[in-house]
Amino acid sequence: MKQFTFEAKQKNFLIGMMGLGILCLILSFILEPAQIAEGGTHARFWSNFLLNVVFFTGIAFMITFVIAAFTLAYAGWYVVFKRIWEAFSSFMLPGLIMMVIIGIAVYAHMNHLYHWADSDAVASDKVLTGKSSFLNKNWYLFGSIIIVGSWIFFGRKFRQISIEEDKHGAEVADFAYHRNLRKYAAIFLPIAAFTGPAIVWQWVMSVDAHWYSTLFAWYSMASWWLAGCSLTIMLIIYLKSKGYLEAITKEHLHDLGKFMFAFSIFWTYCWFSQYMLIWYTNNGEETIYYFTRKSEYPVLFFGNLVINFVLPFLILMRNTTKRRYGTLFFSAALVFFGHWFDYFYMIKPGVFITAKEALEHGKEGAHEAAGHAVEHAASFVPGFTIPGLLEIGVFLGFTAFFIYWVFNQLTKAPLMPLNDPYMEESLHHEVQSYE
Q1: Structural domain containing residue 254
Q2: Are 348 and 44 in contact (CB under 8 A)?
Q3: 260: Cβ–Cβ under 8 A, 6 or more apart, which residues?
Q4: How far is C-alpha 431 from the chain's CA centre?
Q5: How far is CA 27 from CA 110, 286, 377, 383, 389, in A?
Q6: Pick from 95, 276, 57, 75: nearest CA to 185
Q7: CB-based burial of residue 338 (10 Å sphere; 0-12 exposed, 13-18 middle, 19+ buried)?
Q8: pLDDT tens, 362-390?
Q9: Does 409 map to a domain?
């Protein structure tokens, strides 16, 4: 089969899951934890929305980045599933729309996601004042529009050239389309390398506005890539079970499995390197960040390492594991959920502390509130100290939305870019097997 058909039962299932996600999102607006309910911040709702929008938009961005990198590296093995990645990339458009909603809410002070969005807090805090030229409402809203808008432009250009090549490439004797694709990839990579870290600093790292990490961009972008790689594996295995993508073999999935294994180790290296800097540089900002999570959120702190390093390492270390569909699908599902859990770990504690400080500010004043910051997460808080059922429901709803978008995009072009000059290389891709 060369053309994907989005079946009615698939649509109905995904729409049902999206409905569950919307319901859970609404309930998270209503069921605010008692510790911050008096403040009326609806922090659970806004943090759930931010978490999932950032996670899935980031996946789309990193897949676009990898398409450009592979294009410039003259890689050919991935061409047989390139259409799936092009569909992933296109999700940046709805991602931007949802980020604009969050940006408007920050601009209008409709939530307390970020401490730096409170002008009174900035005025009384030297650290926030020093960062205010970057951490401000204008940069957050309009910077997001400009940066993600540029990503969308390049992502659409990659797909447009690919589809034109598929339609007319056989009529062109040389690599005209592919050279054009390389030109745009070469322009995009340095832009992405600069703007990707900048946007993740603003969207995620600034949730804890007093801390910083020079490794944070590597860490968070590796997490996005691992989530995108794992979701690619699951969708390929699913589509193959439906009779599509016959040209994709265990060799291609084996290489994707190796990427998942290798970057799980790289992600752990970034995690440990950030943690190690507490002692290596005597960095007070990082000490507070990790001390709070380790002491107040131990399930998130240790669970993150177990799900995203220990289990993938033990499962994927064997070469044969990466060539068995059942085990590989399970590992991919674990890694995919694990890196959503990683973003939960990055975002939720900071949002909770900011919401609690906003409540305390109204009662006692900002200076007294700062003194209570380390006590905020001392007890179980639903939706913050560990993902609750509502958070899982929202995650499933967003996953369904992402897959629905991807499947809809797959119907608009042949599943295989047959006129890609590297198609033959991809069809004959083979790696050493030790089975």
Answers
A1: 27-401
A2: no
A3: 226, 229, 230, 233, 312, 316, 331, 332, 335
A4: 29
A5: 18, 34, 22, 12, 11
A6: 75
A7: buried
A8: 555 433 443 444 444 446 888 999 999 99
A9: no
Q: How many domains does the chain have?
A: 1
Location of structure tokens 């990683």: 342
Q: Is residue 132 classed as helix, strand or coil in its secondary structure?
A: coil
What CA–CA distance (Å, rounded) separates 309 from 322?
Answer: 16
Express each pLDDT in 146-200 by its tens digit.
999 999 999 999 999 999 988 876 665 567 888 999 999 999 999 999 999 999 9
Token readout for 22 is 């919307």
Q: By C-alpha distance, which of 349, 371, 350, 351 is closest to 360?
A: 371
Cα gap 29→44, rounded to integer Å = 7
The DSSP secondary structure of 361-415, one letter per residue, reads: HHHT-HHHHHHTGGGTTSS--BTTTB--HHHHHHHHHHHHHHHHHHHHHHTTS-S
Query: In this structure, is residue 272 part of a structural domain?
Result: yes
387 touches 344 (CB < 8 A): yes
Burial of 395 (0-12, 13-18, 19+ CB in 10 A): buried
Tell me the whole-structure pTM to 2 decimals: 0.93
Spatial CB neighbours of 324, under 8 Å, sequence gap ≥ 6:
none
H helices then E strands: how many in the chain? Answer: 19, 0
Place of tokens 């409402």: 137
CA angle 428, 432, 433 (to 5 degrees): 110
Amino acid (1-letter code) at residue 200 = V
The span from the CA of 19 to the CA of 21, in Å, is 5
Cβ–Cβ under 8 Å, residues 93 and 153: no
77 occurs within a structural domain: yes
The sign of the dihedral angle between the CA atoms of 217, 218, 223, 224 is positive
Residue 103 belongs to a domain: yes
The token duo for 90 is 């296109």
How far is Cα 63 from Cα 71, in angstroms, rounded to an integer? 12
Report phi then psi at 386, rounded to 5: -160, 145
43-72 and 144-168 helices, crossing angle to 10°: 40
Tally the residues of the chain: 435
**Using CA atoms, how far apart are residues 384 and 350, in angstroms rounded to an integer?**
9
